[in-house]
Design brief:
Blueprint (H helix, E strand, L loop, with lengths): L1 H11 L1 H24 L8 H22 L6 H18 L8
Helix pairs in contact: 1-2, 2-3, 2-4, 3-4
Length: 99
Amino acid sequence: MDQDASAVGTVLGIGLVLYLLWLAVGGLVVGALARWLLPGPDPMSYPRTMLYGWGGSLAGGLVGWLVGAPGWADIFLSVAGAAGLIWWFRRRPASPPTP
């Protein structure tokens, strides 16, 4: 009984917190690398950088899975996906055109 309780505590307690921290740091790193690759100033907050990093990782992982890329190519695909998202959203108009 004690063994089951400790396993649940690890998954729901410290394990989950460390996983979420790992996701946050990974998103920041991927987003920061993508911003660094794109030229020009980009006034963006840390949370937006993290979100672009997460989105790029998701897009890059999906593309890598579809084409059967090796595991070591995941970081390159993640950064490329995040750079593509930043490029796309940076160049779209800020507000919809008025009719």
